[in-house]
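=== RUN LOG ===
request id: a7f3
mode: sequence -> structure
chains: 1
length: 730
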Amino acid sequence: MSKSSSARVTQASFSQHKHLFEYRPYWAECFGIAPFLPTTRKEMDQLGWDSCDIVLVTGDAYVDHPSFGMAVVGRVLEAQGFRVGIIAQPDWTSVEDFQKLGQPNLYYGVAAGNMDSMINRYTADRKIRHDDAYTAGNIGGKRPDRAVIVYSQRCREAFPGVPIVIGSIEASLRRIAHFDYWSEKVRRSVIFDAKADILLYGNAERAIVELSHRLADGESITDLRDIRGTAYVVSELPNDIEMVDESSFEPKAGTNGKINVVSLDTTTAEANPYEQVPDAVAEGDGSEKTIYDLEQVHVPDETRDNSSASFIKLPSYETVKNDKVMYAHTSRIFHRETNPYNAKPLAQAHGDRYIWLNPPPIPLATDEIDSVFGLPYQRVPHPSYGDEKIPAYEMIRFSVNIMRGCFGGCTFCSITEHEGRIIQSRSKESILAELENIRDKTPGFTGVISDLGGPTANMWRLGCKSAEIEASCKRPSCVYPGICKNLNTDQTPLIDLYREARATDGVKKVLIASGLRYDLAVKTPEYVKELVTEHVGGYLKIAPEHTETGPLSKMMKPGMGTYDEFKEMFERFSKEAGKKQYLIPYFIAGHPGTSLEDMLNLALWLKRNGFKADQVQNFYPSPMATATAMYHSGKNPLRRVRSDSEDVTTAMGGRQRRLYKAFLRYHDPDNWPMLREALKKMGRKDLIGNGKMHLIPLTRARTFGKPGKMQTFKTQHTGLPKNPVRKGRK
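=== RESULT ===
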């Protein structure tokens, strides 16, 4: 691992980003385009290659499709002229698989795959999964736990001295000290355990293209210190850049005695920032009362310090490991510094060294992201898998990703930490061209497009109305506690896209399967009508996540008033279209800030509305998420954190988490004994009985036949038909 003597970088010296495809191609472009990026020496020989410039190692099966991160990275680098090989799901118990393509000329690129390897392997209850949607045959166990670390170690053993570049969502969400749910402790930045030379976070096309060209031009990996979206290790902090020391609750002056105003809390928790900063007034439904400190909304120009020579010192790994409140404080700072147009570099001590994080990459422009999706993907799995099915591919092979990023800011979700909150939209022409590619190239296409979406279904081409405001905004969400007045919410362009997609030759039906942001949808009723009339296949999934204000305020999700407004539109337009269609709401059990009373009220809501959820989700503390900081620390980092600041209660331990989850499946006989006990302790015996208004039966049902087989009671419905909730959230 590099031990550079100092960071040797200022914000002013960040490399000026070039258009992604304006670099002079590397000399190896003369070999042309590979049908599939080679995975064996034999395939390299067929291409006439004596070596690979870059070898990518991934925990996923190799599917040459733009929905699979390693295929995107590989094709982008190929378009730059580099010879790229892929080692997919190698045997990590030895170095042999890591040597099979020979020594790469430039570097190894290591990724866990499209999913974090721990989330891929374990359920929210830490039980081992025996399947893996990103593996041929849906077989579990084809990748190691903490794959980025293990793969990096094997690459180092295979060819010592070859630079190791780590990335993917696993590395991205572990770029600083982070709470690890599976070991119940705070782990240091993954770059230390992986002993990698540099870490790329987020959608890293810009960073990896610049890094590759500069290495090819003869620069050392230890010289690449000015690339946005990267993190690396240094032995000391620079003394020629102003430091804002936020390693304690009270920020201290830096080397020249100044304090960077934008990085401080400038109001008390009781102040209302929406009154003080008119540019950030939100249009809420009045149901949410959570407020934010001034630093989290648009900061007026006169209070901003756009100094190009300053960075923020975070609390050290040792501090956050031993102090949960300081962990929450660190999480708050980290999430505040995510806007690529105003984020400062961050530094965090780990023993006698530091992890240095450059600001996030500048988002791709429309023509750049169009070019990424327009590369010559085969759109099918590598032929070596034969007829074996790869479930993740089967799910998306007839779908189109139309955008990246999410400005929702849901605290339990990691999309914003990874992809950013600035939406990167493809052009309509690019999307329609991909529909034609699916029609012409994808085996088994019957004319039905399974999805036009992305992280959400309806954020395409939405964003801030003002580039100036966007460049200075530090709000964690553009839609909570209400929709910012500066946000463009017009979804009529999406209506036009849907209509042209349906009119594409060979396309019979276009469905929308991505999760819908219904608080945005209601702002354009014409969009809701178009969606309901033409693009719902009987059921539409949406995610209120909860019904109660307490957990919703910690999730940064809208109140149920918005859900009711959307539900009324959905049912009205379905009736006008002469269709019987149903909403499928998704909910989370045990999210930080949720009490037993909240779960009981949610269960009663489900019963009143006739919902019987077959699959439900317990809160899963993913690395670096704001909700994970709440879970671990018991504090709320959405407000200024101090030892005496707001406490957040969370269901902890297996039994309590099972109880919270049981309320979502109140109709399951296996949950009745646990729920009876809980209801009695809560003083709610009135909900135990065999009548319509009771939540669960009075006594255990009689058994018939084999021991353990139980007669189940039918759920009483009060208006709505039964809605089978079969699939989890995308």
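=== NOTES ===
The radius of gyration is 26 Å.
The longest helix spans residues 560-576.
=== END ===
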